[in-house]
């Protein structure tokens, strides 16, 4: 299974990219503890270890590709992959997330991205850009 989600966030692609790959900012941005890196090949965890993966491809301020799995994956299920594309659109950034190789039981991840990433990210950058 795979799906693509798109949202607009009032922030620059650089702000989103750097926040996604910073442990402190990723944690503040989502509300869940994250240990991430901005280096290809490095592993990461998010949401107190609920999500794990590895950086596969990083193109500063435009693209993040990571292997991705949650603790809900069965041991015999391979990692899924997320591809995040960031494109500037006036004062906002269009974030397109393509999630591929998702287990058939993974329909709920669509709602998870909305509730645990996109909504808190919008709030985080709204507050940040008011400073």
UniProtKB/TrEMBL annotation:
Source taxon at top rank: Bacteria
Stretches assigned to the Activator of Hsp90 ATPase homologue 1/2-like C-terminal domain: 10-125
SUPFAM superfamilies given in the database record: Bet v1-like
InterPro entries: ASHA1/2-like_C, START-like_dom_sf
Family according to the record: Belongs to the AHA1 family.
The protein, known as: SRPBCC domain-containing protein
Source organism of this protein record: Psychroserpens ponticola
């Amino acid at each position: 299974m795979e799906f693509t989600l798109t949202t607009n966030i009032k922030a620059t692609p650089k702000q989103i990219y750097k926040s996604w790959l910073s442990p402190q900012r990723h944690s503040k941005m989502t509300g869940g503890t994250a240990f991430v890196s901005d280096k290809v090949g490095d592993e990461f965890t998010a949401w107190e270890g609920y999500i794990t993966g590895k950086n596969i491809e990083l193109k500063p301020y435009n693209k993040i590709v990571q292997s991705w799995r949650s603790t809900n994956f069965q041991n015999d299920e391979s990692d899924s992959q997320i591809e995040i594309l960031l494109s500037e659109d006036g004062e906002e950034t269009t974030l397109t997330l393509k999630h591929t190789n998702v287990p058939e039981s993974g329909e709920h991840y669509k709602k998870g991205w909305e509730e645990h990433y996109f909504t808190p990210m919008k709030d985080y950058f709204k507050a940040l850009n008011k400073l």
